[in-house]
Design goal:
The longest helix is centred in the last third of the chain and has 18 residues. The protein is of the alpha/beta class. Helices cover about 50% and strands about 15% of the residues. It has 13 helices and eight strands. It has a single domain, classed as TIM Barrel.
């Protein structure tokens, strides 16, 4: 566990799932994307998270694509797998029976739609922790789930379950970040899941980021996070200000809409998403292209 704590610091990437024109999974582009990220120095990769459009992958596709990511990575960087549900029994059953070899941890999102209480969240993740053969990283993203896990619930889970190793906190709430950092036990990772506030979170004492934008500008984003880890606030802000216009563009029409436009511009994968998500407007595509060409 302690070894994993150090491996999951720095810059992780929430990787997209590439699709062909017929919307089948593009296995060739998985190789291209993974190679691009590793060559550009990212620290680890998260497969089938929100950015990976996991909600529109069927079970056969999930197995096919995660095996492709494992082969492409070839044990070079740690891989996390996103597994979550708003039905505790189903996610416990899935984690208990799935072949998760090749992954170092599970990233599990708070239950969506049914809006559990803090006690319900604690019991949900307790059940996942007890059933998981891998360490578990919590994932709080209230803008998507309609559910916001309080910092006190996270800290309680961290203190009572040894294999819950951290949280991807994507609320963008720096006050909550400060409370998490101030109250966490030893060897519990606090990871930003919000690109806009990631470097500020790291300056406060967070351990790094799981980033969307780093999927298309890995060197730039990694440099910003490393500067923040070193405590160089002035330089980190200066470098962040350079990419901030791109961040606004990437999220303008939702994620991974902007990211897939950027990836296609960089010839890393095709610009296809599954409904109800859509490819970017022509106007946004051209704005992103203009920025990247600079």
């Amino acid at each position: 566990m302690k070894n994993l704590f150090h491996k999951l610091k720095g810059t992780g990437v929430a990787i997209a799932t590439p699709f062909k024109k017929d919307l089948s999974v593009d296995l060739g582009s998985i190789n291209t994307m993974v190679e691009f990220l590793i060559k550009n120095g990212i620290d680890y990769i998260v497969v089938q998270g929100t950015t990976g459009e996991s909600s529109t992958l069927n079970e056969e596709e999930k197995i096919l694509s995660r095996n492709a990511f494992i082969r492409a990575n070839n044990n070079r960087v740690p891989l996390l797998i996103g597994i979550g549900s708003n039905d505790t029994r189903s996610v416990v059953n899935y984690i208990s029976n799935a072949d998760l070899s090749g992954f170092c941890a599970v990233l599990s999102v708070t239950p969506y739609y049914n809006r559990p209480s803090q006690s319900g969240l604690y019991e949900h993740f307790s059940a996942i922790s007890k059933s998981s053969p891998l360490p578990v990283m919590l994932y709080n993203v209230p803008t998507r789930t309609g559910c916001d896990m309080d910092h006190s619930t996270t800290i309680k889970l961290a203190n009572t379950h040894e294999n819950i190793i951290g949280i991807k906190e994507a609320s963008g709430n720096l006050d909550k970040m400060f409370k998490l950092i101030s109250n966490r036990p030893d060897n519990f990772l606090i990871i930003s899941g919000d690109d806009d506030t990631a470097y500020q979170s790291v300056l406060m004492g967070a351990d790094g980021v799981i980033s969307v934008a780093a999927g298309c500008i890995p060197q730039n984003f990694r440099n910003i996070i490393n500067l923040a880890i070193e405590g160089n606030e002035e330089k980190a802000k200066k470098e962040f200000d350079k990419i901030n216009p791109l961040l606004n563009l990437l999220f303008k029409e939702g994620n991974p809409t902007g990211l897939k436009a950027a990836l296609s511009i960089k010839k890393l994968c095709q610009n296809h998403l599954r409904l109800p998500l859509m490819s970017s407007s022509k106007e946004l595509y051209l704005e992103i292209e203009k920025f990247l060409n600079k």
